[in-house]
């Protein structure tokens, strides 16, 4: 059962989106943006549009899954091509990488909003994101992007609770991130490397590991799965499939991180 506080915030989210008069939702298909899309279509009807950006940094299968869920929600959905992988500033992979990625995204979404005559672009950022390392939030501010979940003061756990209450199928979907986050800052990004990482993680997901990361360190990859899944990944039959599949992509060494999955563990240390 949804808590009274989350129910109140969900009502507030509806009010915020209804007040926009029309919104383009930056829709990755994750739990946060899916909740925003679900409430947007309830509040705005045909004046809500979910837009998924497709580029080499998007994990394989995510755009198709986002489209399927959008269909279930009843919201109009569109995919657009973003070209951050053609930007030298993005490929340089500095600590401001996400700023350049989001700048490209919001440039594209601003054009979609203008074409559709929708007043605002909204994101799926939640209250917890404000305390995380998120250079992309600066790009959002520069483009006038609104964050309805932040305005409704919803944390990540409250987003999941609200999504569960609304029977959104992705309410418990593991957190994701662009494939570039698997490459250490300062190491130049290539489209080929993004493709290899995406295929490596697809291999793990096809073997049943819902939450996983393949971190790249030269010709070595470091695999992270949930701590509870470490033993299963280390089992001889599964391990053999993983090693064979990842070596076939061109990596020489395949390692298992015994600490398990940690979101953002390649982010720079914050003061």
Please identify, by name, the CATH architecture of the largest domain. Answer: 3-Layer(aba) Sandwich
Roughly what is the average pLDDT, rounded to an integer? 94
> What proportion of the residues form beta strands (DSSP E)?
5-15%
Largest sheet properties: 4 strands, parallel
Rg over CA atoms: 19 Å
Oligomerization status of the protein chains: single chain
| Distinct helical segment count | 11
Which descriptor suits the 3D outline? globular
Strand order of the largest sheet: 3-2-1-4
Q: Would you write up a description of this structure?
A:
It is a single chain. This protein has helices at residues 4-20, 31-44, 62-73, 88-91, 97-116, 136-142, 148-151, 156-165, 191-206, 230-234, 236-247, and strands at 23-26, 48-54, 76-81, 120-122, 212-217, 220-225, 253-256. It is built from eleven helices and seven strands. With 271 residues, the protein is α/β, with parallel strands linked by helices. The chain has a four-stranded parallel sheet with strand order 3-2-1-4, sandwiched between helices. A three-stranded mixed sheet has the order 5-6-7. It starts with a helix and ends in a 15-residue tail after the last strand. The mean pLDDT is 94. Helix 1 packs across helix 2. The protein folds into two domains: 4-165, HUPs (Rossmann fold, 3-Layer(aba) Sandwich); 179-256, no CATH class. It is 45% helix and 13% strand.
